[in-house]
């Protein structure tokens, strides 16, 4: 696998911060129901291909110096590969997801059990519909929170109270971008990239005010899930098909690294969907009041 999207040497800017991720091997990956516009049970899927693409992502993250932990897959829960949806973890606190669709509700207990078994003591089951890092992304001290298709707006206050972080609520309006992490990615504590067309006019105004220097993605790059990406402050792992977006990132001093998760995209998932960031208390900055 190429370390960069173009084969060029790494960019000079950006400070790398090693991350800790939780992933779930797609041993039982398939599409046998539809809960988002990307899922079509009639379209054939290959568990073998999905596993191979997932392994490339896993191995790349390890190569980049990140710590990757694994949770066991459940044969009755084919979407467990999308670990980002399992919880939001900030300052050593894990807010476990409550899923909207019945096909995924069993994942909540599995993630809660994993946290308990691995020594996490501050664990709370969400009472409102909250689909984890699918709709909650940490940008420095600010928790960006999405709703419109999955997580409830009432989940914003619950997340703010338990996690102790200010929340900026954002409304999604295009069903193809049903989770916040399909339309927006955090690059570092101060920079994000997003696709404006996925958001309501009010949310676009809020993002422009809070992040005036954000990278704005084209619809073409957004629809290949180029924004369903992860960054360690320098390296940005994203869909290899998002070529223009990779160039925009390179211009900002980041090193884009393209990967192919086209099989998982058949279920509406990409790079970020496969990764739940685990943030121990000592790695998170202190909060400084409310915003939004």
What do these coordinates show?
With 292 residues, the protein is α/β, with parallel strands linked by helices. The chain is 23% helix and 20% strand. The chain contains seven helices and 15 strands. The chain has helices at 47-63, 106-117, 154-163, 201-210, 219-223, 243-251, 262-265, and strands spanning 20-24, 67-71, 87-90, 93-96, 122-125, 136-139, 142-147, 167-171, 184-186, 192-194, 215-216, 230-231, 235-239, 255-259, 276-277. It has a three-stranded mixed β-sheet, covered by helices on one side. The chain is globular, with a radius of gyration of 17 Å. It starts with 19 loop residues before the first strand and ends in a 15-residue tail after the last strand.
Which terms would index this structure?
alpha/beta; 292 residues; three-stranded mixed beta sheet; disordered N terminus; L-arginine/glycine Amidinotransferase, Chain A
